[in-house]
Amino acid sequence: MIKFDNVGVRYGVGEEILSDVSFYLDPGTFHFLTGPSGAGKTSLLKLMYLGHRPSRGMISLFGHDLSNLTRNELPEIRRRIGVVFQDFRLLDHLTAFENVALPLRIAGHDHGEYESDVAELLTWVGLGDRLHAKPSTLSGGEKQRVAIARAVIGKPDLLLADEPTGNVDPEIGTRIMRLFLELNRMGTCVVIATHDTQHLKRFPRQRLSLDRGRLSVLPPLEVVQSERESFSDEAEVPQ
Fold first, then answer.
1. Less Cβ crowding at N or C end of the chain, within 10 Å?
2. Is residue 15 part of a domain?
3. Is the pLDDT of residue 231 over 60?
4. Once rounded to an integer, what is the mean pLDDT over residues 152-177?
């Protein structure tokens, strides 16, 4: 799915933000991206969703060497990636429903094909009464949920999320994590940047740990069974 080989990133003439980063992620895997503020997490995610090119090294995505892709080939690759940005990046002139439906419209689907799916997903994340609200009328947590719904609605091959539960309450945060886990169960490779140690304990998964621009691949946190979340009585995740 993703392969980095000795990748480095610097902005301008300053020191490298990322140095000698090498790792690979298999299809259908789930990873947490951790590290202190300023460690380079957002820069690493930018490389994964083609928002920035490396200063050196090689990146392969879906079997394509990114350095060999033409400008015309990039949109097709990007359509296979869902991204949850920290600053949401919603389109202000569109409603919550229209923002979530945008990836499906771009992919050529008709309104009738996705109307019920978009409405169900927004309802599931607690925004069933806000389908026609514009972003300017939404709170930060509501915008976050719209951005998450938009990222997952197309069931992408790769989902990247930058602190996706940072603006929501614990109950909604757990729901969102369950949504990501369900996507992963269906085959999506998931990478979530987070500072939330509770999620790391409740959902033990391999960690990509950044420290001062250098990356280590770490095993899941060891957690006793009593600390793990049981979802047997939770509402079913929308399909």
1. C
2. no
3. no
4. 91
Instruction: Dig out the tokens for 78 from the structure.
Output: 């990007």
Report yes or no on 9 lying in a domain: no
pLDDT band at 239 (very low <50, low <70, confident <90, very high): low
Is 66 domain-assigned? Answer: no
pTM, full prediction: 0.90
pLDDT at 229: 47
The rounded percent of the chain whose pLDDT value lies above 90 is: 72
Report yes or no: 56 and 5 within 8 Å, Cβ to Cβ. no
Domain membership of residue 199 as a residue range:
26-53+78-220
